[in-house]
Every structure is written in C-alpha cells, then in structure tokens.
Amino acid sequence: MSWMMSVLGLSWRLFRGTIGARYRRSFFGYVWMVFPAVAVTGGISLASQSGVIQPGQTSLPYPLFVFVGILIWQVFVDAVDVSHKAFDGARSYLTKVNCAREAIVLSQLYETLIIVGVRLALLILLVTVFAAGDWRAAIVLTFCFAVAVVLGLGIGALLMPFTVLFGDLQHGVRVVLTYGIFLTPAFYAPEGSNLFARLIQCSPLAPLMSSARDAAAGLAIAQPGFLAVVFGVSIIVLVTGMLMIRVSAPILVERMLMGGR
Amino acid sequence: MAPASDICLSVSGVSKKFSRSVKRAMVYGAYDLGLALLGKIDQMFLRETEFWALRDVSFAVKRGRSMGVVGPNGSGKTTLMRLIAGVLAPTAGHIRVNGRIAPMLALGAGFKPVLSGRENIFLNLSLLGVSHREIADRLEAIIDFAEIGEAIDAPTGTYSSGMVARLGFSCAVHTNPQVLIVDEVLSVGDVKFRRKCRNRINDLRRAGTSMLLVSHSGILIQALCDECLYLRQGKIVVQGSPEKVLARYESEIMDSLAADNAARVADFSNLRAKPDELGVRLLEVRFTSAGFAEEGTWIAGREGSLMVTLGCLRAVKEMSINVMITDLSHQIGETVQFMTSHRDIGWMCLEAGRPELRLTFPSVGLRPGTYRVKISLSQGPLHDLLDVAEDVKLIVQDAGYDASCLYFQPREWNVTGGSVLETAVPGRASEWEGAEKL
After folding, report:
1. ipTM of the complex as predicted
2. Does A252 contact B at CB distance below 8 Å?
3. Domain boundary residue among B210, B225, B248?
C-alpha cells in the first residue's frame, strides 16, 4: 500500500516537472493537441467533397465521421508511445538512481491523458452541436477513448523493452503507427466481404470507432459484443504489459548504461 | 558477529557480468528478458563477449561505520556502487540495505534545465525517495547549503556547472540517508564549498550514517574510513584496516608500474633508433637516483637525475628541452612541474652525433607517488616541436619519512643542549648513505 502511495506521489511530481517544462516553452500548448486531427479532417473532407474518396454510407456528417476516427486512432497511437517515451526520456536518471519505474510510466501517462481529455472534450462539444450528442453519447465516447488508451498502453508496454533495445524495431513501430490508420475504418466504412473490407472490419479499433459514431449519431451500438471482447482483451494486454515493464526494467537500465539503444 | 539489526548494508556473494559488445548486449538483453518472463535465472555461464565485472563479492558495513573501496580503473568499483544503489541488479548474490541510500553517483539526477532550482530540488529529492512534506521542510536548508541565493528561482539551465553540482550535492546530503555512497565527488566547487561538504559528511557520520567511499586517494581513505577493501578485476583482493589494505594496494600498483616503466624504457631505445628528416630525435630517457639501482624511480629527498640521449643527424641550433611532470597519484592530472632548458640555462647548440643531456634535482621534492613525464624537444623562439616523448612514467618512492604532504621538503634537524636517541622506523631505508641528512 505504501509502495502504491509512493509510486503515485513520485509519478505526480515527475509529471508536474515535465508538464511545467514542456508548456513553459510553448504558447499554444493546447492547440497542438488537436490541431493535427483538425488539419487531417479538413483535408480528407475536401477530398471527399471533390469525389476523390468514396467513404460509403456514413451515419454522421462526413467531417465529423472522420474526426471521430482520427481522434480515436491518435489516442491509441499516443498510448502506444507512453512506455517507450517514458523510458527513453528518463535515461539520464534511470541509470543513476533506483526509483520506482512504474512511476515514470505513470507520469508519462498523465501527460497523455491530458491530451486525451482535451480531444474528448472538443469531440463531445462538436457532437453536441453538429450531431445527436447527449449524455449517453458522451459516456460511450468516453468509454471508447478509454478502451483505446488501455489497449494502446498495453501494446506499447509489451513492445517497449524491445523498442528500447533495438532501434530498428522502434522505426518499424513508428511506420506502423503512421500508416496503420489506413487499416482502420477512420476514413471510410467499407462494407461487403472483400479482403480489404474484412481486414478493416476486424481491426481492434473498428468497434471503438463504429460505436463512438453510432452513439454520436444517436443510434444504438451496432456491435456491442465485439466492443466487449476488445475491452476484455485490452485489460489482459495491459496487465501483461505492466508485468513486462516490471521484469524488463533492470535489464533495460543496464543496457542504457552502455549507451546503446 | 554483530547483531543483524546493526548491519546497515550487506553484500553477499554478488557477481555481475557485462558484455563488451553493445550489439550483443542488446540481443542478450532480449534473451534474458525471455528467460526472466519464464521465471528462469540460470545465467552463471559467460556467453561470447561477456566478462565478469564483479565476481563473488561479499562484505558488510555496520551502522555508522565507513568502508573505503580502492582498486585500479576497471576493477569494478563503480559497478559495485551501482549495484548497491539499486540501479543495476546483480547477476547472482544478494544486496541488503537497511534504510535509505544517498548515492552521490547521481548528483542532480533528473534536473531539468528549464525548471527553476527550487522545482528541481523537488524533482531530484522525489527521485531519491523523499516525501513531499520532508522536502518542503528541508527546502530552505538545501538552498542555504548550496549557496545559490536568488538564482534558486531561475532555470537551472542558466546555472554554471559549479552551481548545478553544488545544488546536486546539497540535495544528496539532505535526504537523511542511512548509507552514503561517495564516488570521488568531494571535489565539487571551490575550496570553501569542499570544506563544507566534508564537514556535512562528517555531521552525517556522527549522526550514525554509514559511508562507502570510492577513491584513488589513499590519504582520504585513511582519514575517513574504518575499513577498506581492495578490488582487482572484480574480485576482492584484501579487506581489512585501511593501513593494511592500502599498503598492499600501493605496493601492487608500484610493482605493475615499475614493470611497465622498464618495458617502456627498453621499448624506447628500440623504437627511436632511426633519426628522421628533422635531424633530431629522442633516443633514450632514463630516470636514475643516486645509490639506487632501479631505473625509472626517484627517491623523495635524494638526488634524482633525468638522462636524455639524443640522436642528431646534423648540428642543431637554438634547441630547448622541456620537461612537464604530471601527478597521477594525488591530484590526478595536475601539472606539478614544468621546466624548459632555454629559460633555465639558455638555448642549446648541439653537434651531430649522440649528445647526452642530464637534468639533476639535488634533492627530489616530489612527494612519493606516480607521475607522468612529457619530454619535448623544441627549436627557436616559437618552439617548433622536434620530438616528443609522452607518457614516460616516473615513480617517486618514500625514503621512510611520512609523506602526507603536498611536496617533499628536504630538511635538516639540529639539536643543541641535548641529544637524540636513534629509533628504528619501519620502512626507512637506513642503509642509504647520508639518510639522516635529507
């Protein structure tokens, strides 16, 4: 119990230090949290209006449809990054003092959660103004964002020891995180049973995106079963990932001392 | 055997291996991670490129006592400190620490340059495991001690390196540690601050804090430690009273350096036998001491000579020989002597052939220890370099007179109205002629 308290305390102080350091150098901190999603949404919507993209039948106005998809993907990507960023950023003191390594990951998570919060708030606002947003939609959106964070955090934690050890792997992960969005229903809702459509429908983020859109449009959630499965799997992945961090920390710190990646 | 509660730090059977190749270390890391996930920890064999940085090291430190650690570079001292600080996990064995450790390997760990000194104190002490309330209580004391003044609210990025080090040290000593790990960091800041650090460490010691001191300085260890251990190639060679351990350590260092020196001198005459187009080369450098057979060694207080043999293809004008002596034992890297012949006696004009130069110190004033000597030949007022012999080692031995001083003072005692009883002093070389008059 006291260990828990000390981890929470340390993570909070580390977080305050980092967040203070970051936004002292930035005048538009919050703008940068949502600007990329807004820019991409704008671009994709223009492409859709000019007929370049055929998104299929969407329940929401297309810009909002894309915005929901991109935000969920971004939340997922940021959560995947948490563990690697935390360990990479703490190199200088991980190799000098023995502190609770979980606290470092937690403090990085707080930072990501702030960004997630800002994005979620903006999305709820937009959904309320431009679609059928109500308190039920807000709850479903929050839940979908939370599952994306849990799943991303778990996957990131499982990958982290290897991405810290091998620079190549980290580059690979970055590529997947940059272009993987095209394998999710972020920009389109493909129907039918061709291979591409099946692939996209089976993406673990698909039920999160579709449920969020359903809720935003005031519809019932179409795939509650798939959503529940993804949620369950996410929790298992997260627990395994945290175990991985615990076991791998001493091995990683030793390699960090060698100056290798 | 002391009661278990009295033991502050116990290290038992600790071994640690590393890989020399970074790439392999990463691959082994992934492999070890797999083993660890499967719950297997059988790694007592060495894989390719691996070596033992520490092998079966055991010792214990009682509450309030201090332990010195000596050993040549690469003997595993820093690895041992990192293991004790908990930064690394041992490959085998156990380390038990009773209480909080202040590792001074980590001065200013986690300092962020954009944060103010005050914010960094909170960050650093949190990492060292101090609670928020305790930090708030000690904040003023830490700032006072570091002598940062009003700059405490400025970003630490604007601090000088000395200020950062002072703040780091101040944080470390205000953690109320039970075990203090000091790794050659008593050299932080100016003389006044160093004295303050030393006194603060003494205060902690008096309050019952144990200390582990890693140092090359025998004098420091003798002054501050109750016990000492000597590490060589990851193993404890000897452990016990500082006098006993340091005597062994210093004699081994001397032996290896003397062998090294002899090889260098021999090497020199072989390597430098061919005069090149510049016309002048150093052929041989020898240190000799009056009445002492071993070359490369001087004896403090006695006559010492430096013999330099040159090879000149043609006559050389306006030449100077320059000698720089650097301390390797006490103030490591400090230049203790710099002499040039043109300033002492004027320019030299040498004829073709093998001229010999001799520099004599009637009474060697260097204190016992090891020195690095750089000898260079230069020409003309702009000192064009003709040849250089770097890294020639010189050992100065003690003639049996206590030498805990900055330099050896040649001296003479006279007693009138009384007499002096001759006493045998262990280690004093009484067989040397004229030893009573240094």
Report:
1. 0.79
2. yes
3. B248
